[in-house]
Amino acid sequence: MDILRFLTAGNVDDGKSTLIGRMLYDSHALLEDQMQAIARASKNKGLSGDELDLSLITDGLRDERQQGITIDVAYKYFNTPKRKFIIADTPGHVQYTRNMVTGASNCQLAIILIDARHGVTEQTRRHSYISALLGIPHFVVCVNKMDLVDYSQARFEEIVEDYRAMAQSMPVQEVTFIPVSALKGDNVVKPSGRMPWYEGKPLLQHLEEVPVTDDINYRLTRFQVQYVIRPKDDRFHDYRGYAGRMMSGELKAGDTVMVYPAGMVTTVTGIELGNRPLNETQAPMSATLLLADDIDISRGDYIFKPEQMPAIVNEVEADICWLDQKPLMQGGKYWLQHHSKKIQCKVEHIVYKTDIHSLQPMEGQPLLAMNDIGRVRLRLAEELCIDDYRINRATGSAILIDPNTYNTVAAVMMRVDE
Predict the structure, then answer these.
(1) What is d(CA 157, CA 15) in angstroms, rounded to the nearest whole number?
(2) Per-residue pLDDT averaged across 321-342, rounded?
(3) For the chain, does the N or the C end have fewer beta carbons within 10 angstroms?
(4) Hey, what domains does the chain have and what are their CATH numbers?
(5) How far apart are alpha carbons 279 and 218 in whole angstroms?
(6) 129 contacts 89 by C-beta, under 8 angstroms
(7) Pairing assessment for the beta strands 222-229 and 276-278 based on DSSP bridges
């Protein structure tokens, strides 16, 4: 059974937490003790009878409940007979942009909520832009609170038209529009009889059926070494295995590969998972490779097929979201963590900062503050193997680390000149 990781994003009070709560409640994904806790919390809020505040299912932090908003990223796990799900319920406020980036970084689908009364807003544009920037391939635009506009087909179609016009300037790959009422349960788990004009699938069915396997790049073979295994005992005297993860693509025993930075070509003589031999391995599996030649290989080194060379760079432009309270300054020095590889780097130039309101680039900016999104040019202390983030998210992503505090200060999406 595969896993779909998705996020919900929208304006404050658009109903993100209620939507997730409704999905879990109507799909019978809650345990009895969870139901009892939600019933008690709903009663404490003054709700009468059997009425439940379904937003409490994800708004688990006490301070958040008191403010009536979601601040941190709330993760929820559930499954249906068809698929497992990991939900990231992200905050709607502008000042929590970095929280949304964190929640979205590993997602395969984004649910963008729009209040049917208010339509497309600045926050809708911002959340869609960030999701597209992070390379999320599937978008679901849920026009929520349809009960408050009398389930109007005309209003739904107006919002769809406005969103399509807005999304033309973004690298959005696929968008599905669904009219819902999270509060009433319309088109969340079951089709709504109050919107017979909508002929599409309800939300949960769409989430169960949207393809996710194609989101991994199986065309480009990329393996990064995490650990060199050398037992050095009588039983495994000559054993040398290279443990790591298939970041993308696949490898089979007998494949010809190149090792970087050694620059040597060799052959995969065996693949192991634990003590079990495998004929092949593919992303995102971890495995141990056995090679025909004795090559000097260290943690962070790369293995790929010679005909599928990645970009090898010591300077790179990247889109970043700045996460730290201390701003990024031009000339600043950081650690760039590219999975197992960590190297020093310097911010050569802030190419531009993205205006958070118009989403237009602003050049000549001396710094990036917390929650800012922009493009920078990084100079690296040594060469790095990468792919363009838009082509291969696994090998085009990285983080920046402050060398003094060891805080993660930026999410990095690298670009390769075409």
Answers:
(1) 20
(2) 94
(3) C
(4) 3-215 (3.40.50.300), 222-308 (2.40.30.10), 311-415 (2.40.30.10)
(5) 17
(6) no
(7) unpaired
| Residue whose entry in the numeric block shows the structure tokens 């979201």 | 321
pTM for this model (two decimals): 0.82
Residue 203: HSE in the Cβ half-sphere, 13 Å Cα cutoff? 30
Task: Say if residue 8's pLDDT is above 60.
Answer: yes
54 pLDDT more than 80: no
DSSP 3-state assignment of 228? strand
